[in-house]
Predict the 3D structure of the following.
Amino acid sequence: MKIIQSNKIKEVELPLQLNISFKKVFVLFEKYAHQDYANHPFHGSAKKMLDLFNENPELNEGFSDYSLLETYKEQIDLLLDPLFPEPLRSNEIKAVCLPFSFTSFKFSDRFENIINNAGDNYEFSVRNFEDDSMYVMACTFILGFVYGFNIDIKRPFYFDIPDQTSGTMKYYRAAFNGDFSEITPTKNAPKLTQEDFKELLNNFENIDLWKEKFPPKSYIFKGFGLVNLFDVTSEEMLSAIKANLLSGYDDLIFRLQNNLRDFYAIKDLKLGYSIFDNVNNKVCETSIKKSNSIILNKHVEIKCNEDYFCDGIMQKVFKNHETFVISDLEEYGKHTEKNPFYQNLHDSGIQSIILVPIRATQNGDLALLELASPRAYDLNSVNINKLKDIIPVFEAAVKRTSEERQNVLEATIQENYTSIHNSVKWRFYEAAEKYHFESQVNDNAKLDQIIFKDVYPLYGQSDIKGSSTARNIAIKEDLTTQLTLAISVLEDACKTEKLPIYNELMFRVSSYLNDVKSGLNAGDEISILDFLNKDIYPVFNHIKEISKKHADKVEVYMNRLDDNLNVVYERRKEYEDSVTLLNDKLARFIDKKQKVAQEMFPHYFERYKTDGVEYNMYIGQSITKSKPFDKLYLYNLRLWQLQVTYEMENVAYFERKNMKNELRVASLILVHSNAMAIKFRMDEKQFDVDGAYNIRYEIIKKRIDKAHIKGTEERLTVPGKIAIVYSQDKDALEYTKYINYLQSKKQLGKLEYLELEELQGVSGLKALRVEVLYKKDFKENNNTFSFADLIKEIES
């Protein structure tokens, strides 16, 4: 008789004194040993069993010393044999155990084989049985057995038992039978009333109350229990797969792979998936993370028309959307002439595989679930049926993932391609809900106009200085290179063929070259390229035929041309790459900073990339319903804007080392003290100022960066300085405080007070211009100062 005793028996506190007793078995034998059953087949053996009890009275009276299980193991084995019919021992998973303990003895043959195959370190214990729950469950057992107060808190209990043969985990649900036990109270057990019972029902989690009503060891348990296990590995794995698919953790594939290994009892089963996009109504094309796929692990992308898959897979999987199994890869290879699909699986050590197609979207995108094994026939047309209950779960998960992906795409479009900022989205939803409600009862329902009144504008820009000049210089240098190369080809051709046409073409190319060097006018680039295409390139085709040397010379020329633009695109690309790099850096920086600013007070924000970055902000009570507005938030945002402008200057200044063209930015802030209204223009899908008076603000925004200082030819915006344009003296006083504060932090330097030349339609503008003190140890993640910091500085 096998005996398993858990170490936990000494650690777990219970309201019961646990005693092993076979009294209920004794009563059964006593019944059949009576003279009334003299003719019963059990009569003779029952009398012998009574003799065994009389010789060993502890088996009837009970004992708590579990070492006696070993002493009486032969007698106990014999006593319990009737509960373990021999024909069922190899099928039933049954054992005798002591309830509320993990001590077990007398196992069926199948149960004993399972335990032996679990390994030496396995400890027989229930998965979901916590110590406090065990105490309360013992109390409910007492309530029903002693007092007749029945509480149904039955829950399924599970044992996770490793299978060393397959290298996987098996899962079993337990059913307990307590018919062979009895409970009696000790003198220390409080007598419970109906009121006590009601109080306990309302305090399941109050373990102290349960221990008060059922003190530890206040009742005596005598007997034993029977436990039957049922293999529920498939059901458990189905539940685990559902849970994992719902959770969507980063290691989802790894977790699902472990689930399916236990499900199929294949310790090295591999799981992968691939997505095949239905592009232009083609059967299958894919571009996928190869780490997720087994069948594509050596390919970033494949196209089915390249004969990667065999006709059978194409027909069954991609056209009929039916599951496909390869039980023996080598046999498959013989019939497909070892096609690329076979070769890929063979190189990956795969010998059997199941492909399960799942439609991901309505337009025909296909998700392919891949199960593979390194051994032939591990996966086959028979055990493929085990997947029938799992495939619907994967289908639901794939559809959910597809919907989530669609939501992400829509959110990306919402964030990057429209002007509906998060701060004002609530108003659009409000209007949409109203329209939806009214359209159900009124065919002429109209969408509300989206207007935010009494908002204060903030505008800023970090403009790349001299961008037009730098771009023209780059174009000139590229055209000079291209024309010089063309002359070189013609000169070489002249040496071989004394044709006057070569001299005439060289003259015309040289004329264009001189024009470019002297200055580039509008339309010059198009004229030159048109001349090259019509007059030069046909001649080049002839020159290539003269000799290999000439062909190589033409090839050198052609290799310098950009594949898409068909021009030399070197200096211009360096310039445009530098502009893109700087724009992206500045845009990402202010976007990140702006998220922090939203936490101060919700406000509308929109940003544009030009040759540099410019942005609008609007703040006021109408923007948000969640927080009362105070002008303090406006002042705070203005201080934030000034410091972020300083930080963007530093970002641009230190980004020069990463650019082929060293570009500088000039920063500008426009101050407008009066509140205004902004309106969403449905036709343009963006916000604009509302009202004739406010148009002046928009005019200033468009023209201010070209403004000159009054009485000079000097531009207001210059690298290394921040210009703050205003029209009211109170604005200058406000910003002077901010500047003085940032000067104290060694961020800003010398301050200038300037008047501006009149702009077309705008007069009376003034400006503060302050020097930027670049920091050698500038860090992008430094926190900006708040208005509260400024107040503290002033008060101190």
Observations:
- The longest helix spans residues 467-496.
- Residues 279-283, 285-291 have pLDDT under 50 and may be disordered.
- The first strand starts at residue 3 and ends at 4.
